[in-house]
Amino acid sequence: MVYIDAVHYEQDSYGNEYISKMKWTDYLSQKAINECTKSDMIDFINQNPGYTKTKYLRFSVWVEGEDVRVVDGRYLRTDANNIKRDNLGSLPRY
């Protein structure tokens, strides 16, 4: 399993924020140190569906979050609605 625990945002020329990178790890019990672009994670998820989740630090313990999926080939989401935008906003920023 791959776990995402932090995201990095940048701004486009219109001032809109978008996820550009994220930190991930193969281990639920440790902070992520690997970094990849959003595009790289989309490619990974498309090749390995059902293998990526979020995780959160709660009371000093890592807790497994939701499945991460790709929507419309360019957005990363953790819920089942059809809104076409990224939905990893509850993860910490770095």
Radius of gyration: 13 Å
Uncertain spans? none
In terms of DSSP E residues, the strand content is: over 45%
Largest sheet: 5 strands, mixed
H-E string: EEEHEEEE
Mean pLDDT: 93
Fold topology:
Elements: E1 2-11, E2 17-25, E3 34-37, H1 38-47, E4 52-58, E5 61-67, E6 69-71, E7 75-77
Parallel strand pairs: 1-4
Antiparallel strand pairs: 1-2, 2-3, 4-5, 6-7
Describe the protein's architecture and organization.
The chain is mainly beta and 94 residues long. It has one domain. Helix content is 11%, strand content 46%. It contains 1 helix and 7 strands. It has a 5-stranded mixed beta sheet, with helices on one face. A two-stranded antiparallel sheet has the order 6-7. A hairpin with an 8-residue loop joins β2 and β3 (34-37).
